[in-house]
Amino acid sequence: MTTVTRAHLAEHIYSQVGLSRHESADLLEGVLEKIAATLEEGHSVKLSGFGTFSVRQKGRRTGRNPKTGVEVPIMPRSVLVFRPSQILKNGVNEGSGTKRMKAGREA
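The chain above was modelled as a monomer; its predicted structure follows.
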């Protein structure tokens, strides 16, 4: 299993779109910066066929230190939530990526 990095994505843009490597990296950075800025403003980002990123507010609550059992207040905060699209869920559950990887090894 490998982790996809910004460098991997920029290289894929370079090979598929035909921009220079530098332009591909700039394009990727621009898209990621726009997504981050939109989320920082508290708005959702929906990528059709992929999923939706949104910011959710968690209220103040009381937690407990597991070692001592002492109650501790947990302050309100914002959390980032990702909800995958049905298409992405189906692809992951069917293991379509795994099938492609196995077919490539046998060839």
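The chain has two domains: 1-41, 44-61+73-107.
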